[in-house]
Specification:
Elements lengths: L10 E5 L4 H17 L4 E6 L1 H9 L5 E4 L6 H4 L7 H6 L4 E6 L6 H8 L5 E5 L8 H14 L18 H8 L12 E6 L11 H13 L2 E7 L7 H4 L8 E5 L3 H10 L2 E5 L2 H8 L4 E6 H7 L5 E6 L7 H10 L3
Parallel strand pairs: 1-2, 1-4, 2-3, 4-5, 6-7, 6-9, 7-8, 9-10, 10-11
C-alpha cells in the first residue's frame, strides 16, 4: 500500500523506559524495526546513557531523554502545551514497549492527539517465556500487517559491533589482552537489587579458578555496586585481571563482544553481554528466570535465593562449556 510505513521515508518515535536490562529486552524488537524500516529515521525515548549504546551502533538514529521537561505530560497527568502535540505530529509512527498497564498514559495521550499509527505493546504476564520474545512476537505481528519480512528472533538479537570497537574494549585490560590467543573473561558481581546478588566471595573463587585456567579478565562494577567498593578495594585480583569501575558502555560492549566468556547476576550488564553474543553464565532467582532470562548463548543457574547456588555448580557449567 502507498501509505505503508515500510514504503515511507518518514520517521518513527519509539518508547522504552527503565534501566539497561529493560532496554535490552526490547532491543530485538527495536532491531527488527531497524531492519524492516530502513528508510525510516528511528527516534528512541529512553534513559539517555543507555540509549546512546543503540545510537552509536546504528540501531536507532536519535535519542531523546525521557527526563526532558516537555515529555512530562506523557508520563503524568500534567497539562500539556502545544509544543508536545506539534512534536508528536512530526512522526509517522509511534510505538512503545511497556511492562504494565499503569504506563499507558503515554499511549492514551498519543491516541488523544490524533496519532493514527500509534501502538504500544504490553507484556502479558501469562506469556510462557521471555519478555523479550513476547515483545518481539507482538512487534512482528504488527509489522506483518504492513507486508514486512519475517526474520527469526535470533536474527535480531546481536548488537552490531566492529573489530575496532572490540579492540577498544580489550584495551581496557591493557596491551597484553590484545595479543592473539589470549583468553578473556568478564565478571560482574553486582545487580540493581541485593536479592539478586550472589556472594562476592563466591565470585572471587570463580575469578581465581579462571585465572588458573589462563584467563585474563575484568571485574566490572557500576553505580549499583557502590556498596561493594569498600570490600573490593581490599581484594587483590590475580595477575592479568583488572577492576573496571563504571566503564563507558560502548567500550564495555566492545570488551564483551571480544570476550570468550561472561559470568554475572541478573543485571543489565548480563543482558548486555548476551546481546553482544558472548557466552554467558547467569545466576537468577527462580521466580524471575522464565520472564527475564537473556536471549543468546546463555546458561542459567537458579535457586529460590541466588545464594543457594553453589560455586561447584557454576564451575561445572564452565567446565562443561569448555571454558
Amino acid at each position: 500500500m502507498d501509505d505503508s510505513i515500510l514504503n515511507s521515508r518518514k520517521s518513527a518515535l519509539l518508547f522504552r523506559l527503565g534501566g539497561l536490562g529493560d532496554l535490552l529486552v526490547a532491543f530485538p524488537s527495536i532491531y527488527l524495526l531497524r531492519k524492516n524500516l530502513s528508510p525510516c529515521s528511528l527516534t528512541l525515548v529512553c534513559r539517555e546513557e543507555y540509549g546512546l549504546l543503540l545510537k552509536e551502533t546504528g540501531v536507532v538514529d536519535k535519542i531523546v531523554s525521557a527526563d526532558q521537561k516537555k515529555l512530562a505530560p506523557l508520563f503524568t497527568s500534567r497539562p500539556y502545551s502545544q509544543e508536545l502535540p506539534l512534536w508528536l505530529s512530526e512522526f509517522s509512527l509511534i510505538l512503545g514497549w511497556m511492562q504494565k498497564e499503569s504506563s499507558l498514559n503515554v499511549r492514551e495521550l498519543c491516541s488523544s492527539l490524533g496519532r493514527k499509527r500509534c501502538h504500544f505493546f504490553i507484556h502479558d504476564p501469562d506469556y510462557p517465556g521471555q519478555i523479550s520474545k513476547s515483545f518481539f512476537e507482538n512487534t512482528l505481528e504488527f509489522l506483518a500487517e504492513e507486508g514486512g519480512p519475517n526474520p527469526a528472533f535470533r536474527q535480531c538479537t546481536i548488537l552490531p559491533s566492529s573489530s575496532r570497537r572490540k579492540r577498544d574494549g580489550l584495551g581496557l585490560l591493557g596491551e597484553e589482552a590484545l595479543k592473539k590467543g589470549v583468553k578473556v573473561a568478564v565478571v560482574h558481581p553486582g545487580s540493581g537489587s541485593r536479592s539478586k546478588c550472589w556472594p562476592l566471595d563466591n565470585f572471587m573463587e570463580i575469578v581465581h579458578l579462571l585465572s588458573h585456567r589462563g584467563y585474563r579478565g575484568a571485574l566490572v562494577t557500576g553505580m549499583a555496586e557502590i556498596e561493594l567498593e569498600d570490600r573490593l578495594k581490599k581484594i587483590t585480583l590475580p595477575n592479568g585481571w583488572v577492576w573496571l569501575q563504571n566503564p563507558p558502555l560502548l567500550k564495555l560492549s566492545g570488551l564483551l563482544s571480544a570476550a570468550n566468556f561472561y559470568f554475572g547476576n541478573d543485571s543489565g550488564i548480563t543482558h548486555l553481554a548476551a546481546a553482544c553474543g558472548t557466552e554467558v553464565i547467569a545466576l537468577f532467582r527462580k521466580d524471575l528466570k522464565d520472564a527475564w532470562k537473556p536471549y543468546g548463548h546463555v546458561a542459567v543457574l537458579s535457586g529460590e535465593s541466588v545464594s543457594d547456588i553453589k560455586p561447584d555448580s557454576v564451575w561445572e557449567i564452565i567446565a562443561r562449556n569448555g571454558v
